[in-house]
């Protein structure tokens, strides 16, 4: 490829790539490597560019697959990279642009090759390709059997030890991406991988000591959200004269390869930058989630999950328990801020769920924050825009709320936080409302959306569980929140009557015809009655524990008192209806005594006076409503495909052929 060539379609014919993938063995000390690695190549960003690059290089990669058993050129390339990384830290300190640039290019080529290798062969075959050397065809050396492990360890060292500077930003991103690619064999298996060669290397041996340092670094990359360096600040940039940095610094080294190769051609405008503000933070978070969800080894738990479960705040001076390996300390305030700011992405919400569910130190810290609204509001916004989110993102947001509502302190404090002008809530202008009332509104809206669209019983159950956990601490409910609670009960009541009528008609029809199969209305009726009972228990819990704090709920209850009449004598609801019926009767009597045509203000005043006068012992005590989130058995069957779908859709600079993916279907959300 000459200096005037700038088309991706020229890559398969490029002389240096043909030599790398050809039948000739190339020594690690050959000047060829300097020539191969001295290209100025703006990393592709869009899926279109990535697909073009993949299609253009796949023939080169397949040629290497065929010839590498004879030449060992893949191993030689990796050894060239490994030898360079030993001087990378010093090169960063000395601002050696050329050295870092060429090392990045070596890793970029390795990553491209590995992606094709992993897609087209088994892990056992891949491992063999790391052992081939320049010998007889297909021969290998026992001395090089750990080259794969050495490369993985080197990547971990690169991520954790190389200082993040403008000139090292790209190679840091590439190192994280290459580790993701190493683990991407899961994409090409329908079943969850429980035994994998890459897993084995990461969970024991030379890689294991880097566990806590790697997890800590990936978390800090997420926290810092470092943006890529501006044009002109790093080694892969182009200067204003249209030539790469190569022209000024290395024109004597590379005379023919990719010297001014850009995706759009010489002198063309740069491709539009993606919305992603920090590729390193995004890629680091994806790798962290992949590592956290690796399945346990037969003889040892996943060390990366152990690290995520056990790390502590830098303010925590207590000693680390000797029984807990791979632990470390991190600044929880910075972590909390990043989690609050990044909840628009699936992966940040999944990280928040993981930390709240698995790390008790993080959960305790979050629940003690006095600015809880900064975390809860983004989660509520995810649920509010349920139509625009994928089902997994909504599910994670809901489970986060359920975990938070397990804490009574949280349930009390959210009613003390007053919010003004919630602009994204469009059903009604909310000039002032408590965080607790807003949470109730959004969860009820999610239930109603689910009833009319997805009809997911599990979603229903978790929404109601969150409301039930909060119900005993309902305080000063907003008028609109109180109305929506009763409106939801009204909707459920109508649905109950409709299903009951259908069941009755179906029963009559079955008496005249024994041949037609009947819908299972009994099951539908049972489900809707379970939900109705749950709603009655939520209302009852609020009345029993905080009647005098919630005049608006009593007002809404009295306004729609007729809704509850049909359930007074129903055998499934008689017990729970006692308190509700008592409250309706008591306050209706006081309003009747006050006369007709009462204003809203006067009615609320009578309710407040009545709440003080009503003897508390007249309300029957029921067991406290408390629901705890419990992860399903074999959670990896859900989380591993979910995490890899996020990698597939969100990873920067990585493209996989959708036709080759087997772990999940491409049209599912």
Automatic annotation (TrEMBL):
Transmembrane segments: none annotated. The keyword Lipoprotein applies. GO terms for cellular component: Golgi apparatus. It comes from the Eukaryota. Keywords: Lipoprotein, Myristate. Pfam families: Dymeclin. GO terms for biological process: Golgi organization. PANTHER family: DYMECLIN. Belongs to the dymeclin family. This is Dymeclin. It comes from Crocuta crocuta. The gene is Dym.
């Amino acid at each position: 490829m000459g200096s005037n060539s700038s088309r991706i379609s020229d890559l398969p014919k490029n002389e240096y790539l043909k030599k790398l993938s050809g039948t000739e063995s190339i020594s690690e000390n050959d000047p060829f490597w300097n020539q191969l690695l001295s290209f100025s190549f703006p990393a592709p960003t869009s899926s279109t560019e990535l697909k073009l690059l993949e299609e253009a290089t796949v023939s080169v990669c397949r040629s290497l697959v065929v010839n590498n058993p004879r030449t060992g050129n893949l191993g030689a390339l990796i050894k060239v990279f490994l030898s360079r990384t030993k001087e990378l830290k010093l090169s960063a300190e000395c601002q050696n642009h050329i050295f870092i640039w060429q090392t990045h290019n070596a890793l970029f080529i390795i990553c491209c090759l590995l992606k094709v290798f992993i897609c087209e062969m088994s892990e056992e075959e891949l491992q063999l390709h790391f052992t081939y050397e320049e010998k007889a065809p297909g021969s290998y050396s026992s001395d090089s059997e750990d080259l794969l492990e050495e490369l993985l360890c080197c990547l971990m060292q690169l991520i954790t030890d190389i200082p993040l500077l403008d000139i090292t930003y790209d190679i840091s991103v590439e190192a994280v991406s290459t580790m993701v690619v190493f683990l991407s064999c899961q994409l090409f298996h329908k079943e969850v991988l429980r035994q994998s060669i890459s897993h084995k290397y990461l969970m024991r041996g030379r890689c294991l000591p880097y566990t806590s340092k790697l997890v800590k670094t990936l978390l800090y990359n997420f926290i810092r959200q470092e943006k890529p360096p501006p044009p002109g600040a790093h080694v892969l940039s182009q200067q204003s004269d249209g030539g790469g940095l190569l022209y000024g610094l290395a024109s004597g080294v590379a005379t023919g390869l990719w010297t001014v190769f850009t995706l759009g051609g010489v002198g063309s405008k740069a491709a539009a930058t993606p919305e992603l503000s920090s590729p390193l933070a995004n890629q680091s978070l994806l790798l962290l989630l992949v590592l956290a969800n690796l399945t346990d080894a037969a003889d040892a738990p996943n060390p990366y999950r152990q690290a995520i479960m056990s790390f502590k705040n830098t303010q925590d001076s207590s000693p680390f328990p000797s029984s807990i390996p791979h632990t470390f300390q991190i600044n929880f305030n910075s972590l909390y801020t990043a989690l609050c700011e990044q909840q628009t992405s699936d992966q940040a919400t999944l990280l928040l769920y993981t930390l709240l569910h698995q790390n008790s130190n993080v959960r305790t810290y979050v629940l003690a924050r006095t600015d809880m609204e900064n975390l809860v509001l983004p989660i509520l916004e995810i649920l509010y825009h349920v139509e625009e989110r994928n089902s997994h993102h909504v599910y994670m947001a809901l489970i986060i709320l359920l975990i938070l509502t397990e804490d009574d302190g949280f349930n009390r404090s959210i009613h003390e936080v007053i919010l003004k002008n919630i602009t994204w809530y469009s059903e009604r202008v909310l000039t002032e409302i408590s965080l607790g009332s807003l949470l109730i509104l959004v969860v009820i809206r999610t239930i109603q959306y689910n009833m009319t669209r997805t009809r997911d019983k599990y979603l229903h159950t978790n929404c109601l569980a969150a409301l039930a956990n909060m119900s005993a601490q309902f305080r000063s409910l907003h008028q609109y929140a109180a109305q929506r609670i009763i409106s939801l009960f009204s909707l459920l009541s109508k649905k109950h009557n409709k299903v009951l009528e259908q069941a009755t008609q179906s029963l009559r029809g079955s008496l005249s015809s024994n041949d037609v199969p009947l819908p299972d209305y009994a099951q539908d009726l049972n489900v809707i009655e379970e939900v109705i009972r749950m709603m009655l228990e939520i209302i009852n819990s609020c009345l029993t524990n905080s009647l005098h704090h919630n005049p608006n709920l009593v007002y809404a209850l009295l306004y729609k008192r007729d809704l509850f009449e049909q359930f007074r004598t129903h055998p499934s609801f008689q017990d729970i209806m006692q308190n509700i019926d008592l409250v309706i009767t008591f306050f209706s009597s006081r309003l009747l005594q006050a006369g007709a045509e009462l204003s809203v203000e006067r009615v609320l005043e009578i309710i407040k006076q009545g709440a003080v006068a009503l003897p508390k012992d007249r309300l029957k005590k029921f067991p406290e409503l408390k629901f705890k989130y419990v992860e399903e058995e074999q959670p990896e069957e859900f989380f591993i495909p979910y995490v890899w779908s996020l990698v597939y859709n969100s990873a920067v600079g990585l493209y996989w052929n959708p036709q080759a993916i087997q772990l999940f279907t491409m049209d599912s959300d």
